[in-house]
Every structure is written in structure tokens, then in C-alpha cells.
């Protein structure tokens, strides 16, 4: 009861913001769909605006604890639940054709982020989040990585804002750009799946392309490539977790105090277990249980994960000063732009090398 009394108001407030953001992200005005922006971005923007208007709200004793709990623990739950939407075997078998391009674009983004961090003398956590968010899957990758590297709310908000900017630009510009440079319909699907960040933006981009190309199948192919790319969350977060544990152990060794349990983000292991469970069930002979699991259950978990991420982003927004964020946004935006341009160039270049560029569905 003590936990509920202490946290319930903050949690419910974040859930309310996430609910409004989720409804808004499903709306459209004419041909423009708010899905391009997505519920997590709406949530973080609403949170920052509320804090700008009512600065004391997030620091109120009745709200602060629940908001903090949501930004930390609920975010971890979201990542664990996200694992249930990943069928490793199916994604790899369908998306294997795009693997060389995916590996190349991910590597490029991480290398560019590392170089830019050194050149611009940027904070290593923000650089890591932008590099991972640009290379893998935007908000979901940032959500999974932030607790691993112990990034604070300001660092997460800054990274999400940068990724959001180039997500929207990609969703609006890439369909026409792809058609203009002569990408085939399958080539464009791989391009969208490797060069656009969030799944919502990939969906919007590929849907627009289907109209331009007058071909069906671009959307499903692009989403499959995107899901294959999402798998990189597992090795990258695991490596970051092990590196952080190693550094903490090294430092702890000097001071004489160290605990792997306190340092290693165990939720990443639960995330992997969830993905493995879905993979095992997906490989089972067809039955009413497997049909229910792979259909209703997986869809429900995917929706719940997105909602929890939106809740966590609202909490992060409530703890972020938007004025300060804008003032310090120059270097992160430049890093995000460089990652975006290089990923786009490498995706196109690798398709030309592998002969996928002109292929059609």
C-alpha cells in the first residue's frame, strides 16, 4: 500500500499523457498521418510543455516519485515486453537478404557517432543514444539503451528529439527521393527499412512509396527489414551492459566495493528470454495455442510495449527543461544529421554493390 500511495498519482498522470498521445498518433489530417510522429514523441513533447507551463508539477511530493518510477522502471518493463514481439527465426529467414546492408548501416552510424563525439567533444551517453537510435530503431533502441548506460532524462530527451527530427524528414522526403534516383520497389523497401529509424516512420514512408510506385508489397517488405534491424538491440545492449559492468568492476576493485547485481541491467536478459520464448512458440507445430500466442498475444504485447514506452517518454519530458534542451541542441542535431546522411549513402551504396538497387517486388 505504501508503494501505491507514493507512486500512483505520478504513474496515472504519465499514463494519461501516453493515452492522449496514443490517440493523437492514430489520427490524420487529409493525407498527413500523425503516425509519422508517433506516440512516444508526442508524449515527451507534452511532458516538456507541461513542465514549461507548470514547472513545479514534476517536483511535487505527490507526483515526483511516480514520475521517476515511470521513467526508470516502466521503461525497463517496456523493453522486456518488446521482446515478445520478436520472432528471431522468422525475421532472420525473411530478412536475410538485407543483412549485409543492415550490418553496414548500423556499423556506419556507430562509427560516425563515435568520431563526432570526439570531434565535437560531446557527452558520451548522448552520443551513444543518438548513434544507437539512428542505426537501429529510433525510440525503441534509445529506450533499451538508456537504462543500460545509466543515461538521465535530459540525455534521453535530447536524443529522442534529434531522432524524431530526422524521422519526420525521412518519411516526408525519401519516397520521392527514392523514385527520383531510380530505386526499384524492392530496393526502396530495403532502403526504407535500413535508412529510416522508428517503425512508425518506416510504415509511413513505405505506404507513401506504394502509392508512388503503384505496387503492393513495399510496406510488408520494409517492415520485415526494419524488424530484422531491430534484432541488433540484443547484441548492442548486451555488449554495452558487459562493458559498463567491466568498468564498474575495475573501478570497484580499486575502492574495494563492487556488485554485479547492482550494475548489470538484468532486464536485458529478460528481454532476450521473451524473444527466445516467442521464437520457440513460432517454431512449434500449428495449434490453437500457437495461433493465439503468435496472433493475439504478440499483438497485445507489441501494443503494451509501445504504450509503456510512451508513458516513460512522458515522464522523461516532465523532468526535462525544453528551453535548456533547445539551447544545447546544436551539437546533437549535427551528429544526428551526419549519422542520417551516412546511413542513407551507405544503404544506397550497398544496394548498388549487391545488385538490389534496381530489383522490383
Architecture overview:
With 361 residues, the chain is an all-alpha fold. It is 80% helix and 1% strand. The chain has helices at residues 2-25, 39-53, 61-82, 88-95, 99-120, 124-135, 139-149, 153-180, 185-195, 199-213, 218-230, 233-255, 260-263, 267-283, 288-318, 322-327, 330-354, and strands spanning 28-29, 32-33. The protein has a two-stranded antiparallel sheet with strand order 1-2. A hairpin with a 2-residue loop joins strand 1 and strand 2. The model has no long low-confidence stretch (mean pLDDT 86).
Task: Describe the structure concisely.
The protein has helices at residues 2-25, 39-53, 61-82, 88-95, 99-120, 124-135, 139-149, 153-180, 185-195, 199-213, 218-230, 233-255, 260-263, 267-283, 288-318, 322-327, 330-354; strands at residues 28-29, 32-33.
Amino acid at each position: 500500500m505504501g508503494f501505491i500511495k507514493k507512486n500512483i498519482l505520478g504513474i496515472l498522470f504519465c499514463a494519461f499523457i501516453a493515452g492522449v498521445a496514443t490517440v493523437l498518433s492514430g489520427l490524420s489530417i487529409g493525407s498527413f498521418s500523425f503516425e509519422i510522429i508517433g506516440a512516444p514523441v508526442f508524449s515527451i513533447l507534452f511532458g516538456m510543455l507541461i513542465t514549461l507551463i507548470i514547472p513545479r508539477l514534476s517536483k511535487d511530493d505527490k507526483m515526483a516519485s511516480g514520475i521517476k518510477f515511470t521513467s526508470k522502471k516502466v521503461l525497463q518493463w517496456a523493453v522486456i515486453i518488446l521482446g515478445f514481439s520478436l520472432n528471431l527465426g522468422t525475421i532472420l529467414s525473411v530478412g536475410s537478404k538485407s543483412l549485409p546492408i543492415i550490418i553496414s548501416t548500423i556499423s556506419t552510424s556507430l562509427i560516425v557517432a563515435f568520431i563526432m563525439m570526439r570531434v565535437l567533444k560531446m557527452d558520451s551517453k548522448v552520443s551513444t543514444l543518438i548513434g544507437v537510435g539512428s542505426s537501429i530503431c529510433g525510440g525503441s533502441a534509445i529506450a533499451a539503451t538508456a537504462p543500460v548506460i545509466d543515461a538521465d532524462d535530459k540525455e534521453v530527451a535530447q536524443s529522442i528529439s534529434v531522432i524524431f527530427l530526422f524521422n519526420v524528414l525521412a518519411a516526408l522526403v525519401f519516397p520521392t527521393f527514392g523514385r527520383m534516383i531510380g530505386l526499384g520497389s524492392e530496393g526502396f523497401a530495403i532502403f526504407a527499412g535500413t535508412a529510416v529509424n522508428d517503425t512508425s516512420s518506416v510504415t509511413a514512408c513505405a505506404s507513401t512509396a506504394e502509392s508512388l510506385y503503384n505496387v503492393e508489397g513495399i510496406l510488408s517488405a520494409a517492415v520485415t527489414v526494419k524488424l530484422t534491424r531491430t534484432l541488433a538491440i540484443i547484441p548492442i545492449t548486451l555488449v554495452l551492459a558487459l562493458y559498463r559492468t567491466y568498468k564498474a568492476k575495475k573501478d570497484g576493485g580499486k575502492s574495494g566495493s563492487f556488485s554485479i547485481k547492482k550494475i548489470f541491467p538484468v532486464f536485458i536478459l529478460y528481454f532476450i528470454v521473451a524473444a527466445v520464448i516467442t521464437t520457440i512458440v513460432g517454431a512449434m507445430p500449428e495449434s490453437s495455442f500457437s495461433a493465439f500466442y503468435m496472433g493475439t498475444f504478440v499483438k497485445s504485447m507489441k501494443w503494451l510495449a509501445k504504450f509503456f514506452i510512451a508513458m516513460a517518454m512522458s515522464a522523461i519530458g516532465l523532468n526535462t527543461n525544453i528551453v535548456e534542451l533547445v539551447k544545447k541542441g546544436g551539437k546533437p542535431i549535427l551528429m544526428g544529421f551526419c549519422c542520417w546522411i551516412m546511413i542513407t549513402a551507405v544503404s544506397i551504396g550497398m544496394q548498388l554493390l549487391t545488385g538490389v538497387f534496381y530489383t522490383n517486388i
